[in-house]
Specification:
Elements lengths: L2 E3 L5 H12 L3 E3 L6 H4 L2 E2 L1 E3 L4 H15 L2 H7 L1 E4 L3 E5 L4 E5 L4 E4 L3 E4 L2 E6 L6 E3 L2 E5 L2 E5 L6 E5 L3 E4 L2 E4 L1 E10 L4 H21 L3 H17 L3
Helix pairs in contact: 5-6
């Protein structure tokens, strides 16, 4: 399943990121990819060795932690330190697949169940630069408002089309979910959304409590902790 999660960042937060990224130290984006990705990758990334990067990535994690919808859709166990990329004239990232596992600074190795892109540039400020995701339901072209995030299975082939004008800036990361199965995770997300909707309409009735009990028992049964 692919999820569009709106308003991860507010307008004020976006302004802060724009100011910080304008004066960040950028390096060749191939510094953080393997041999396969390096052959088709042409972009820039914020240097992860700088103190400014540490502040930037912590702010993204704080914003994700404040989003109930992000938690419901991802059920994250481990989140990789968010990275930041920039695409300018004719820069692109051809079709590739994300590695199945990644090194994590505190968790050791993590499995990449989900990939996420947090858009930091307004879509009308650049041309091209769409995130294209191939899955069993076909091809999806994603270009979201600034501050919105797309979450999708890391097993999907995907690319970023060439930027033909302006500048595309985003943050991206990988997640290991508490629920390994995409299908089970999607079922839990749908169940959670319906529980919240029923709770808002009818309050804490017996039916809502019963569904909440079902949700937590399924999470307890399916989770890998």
């Amino acid at each position: 399943m692919m999820y569009h999660i709106p308003r991860i960042l507010s307008a004020d937060q976006l302004s802060w990121f724009s100011e910080q990224l304008a004066c960040a130290q950028w390096i060749d984006g191939r510094a953080t990819t393997g041999d396969q990705g390096a052959k088709v990758k042409n972009n820039q990334q914020v240097d992860t060795r700088t103190p400014q990067y540490q502040i930037l990535q912590s702010r993204v994690l704080e914003a994700l932690d404040a989003s109930p919808l992000f938690f419901s859709a991802a059920l994250p166990r481990t989140i990789s330190p968010p990275l930041f990329n920039r695409y300018r004239q004719e820069e692109t990232y051809g079709f590739h697949v994300d590695g199945a596992v990644r090194s994590h600074p505190t968790a050791g190795w993590m499995r990449t169940d989900l990939s996420a892109t947090l858009f930091l540039s307004h879509p009308d400020s650049y041309q091209g630069g769409e995130l294209v995701i191939n899955d069993t339901y076909g091809q999806h072209r994603v270009k979201l408002p600034a501050g919105d995030l797309v979450l999708y299975p890391s097993s999907s082939l995907h690319c970023v089309t060439p930027v033909t004008g302006g500048e595309r800036v985003a943050s991206f990361m990988w997640l290991q979910s508490m629920i390994r199965s995409n299908q089970q995770r999607a079922m839990l997300c749908d169940l959670d959304k319906n529980i919240q909707s029923l709770r808002a309409k009818f309050g804490e009735g017996e039916e809502v409590l019963s569904l909440l009990n079902m949700y937590h028992n399924l999470l307890r049964s399916w989770s890998e902790l």
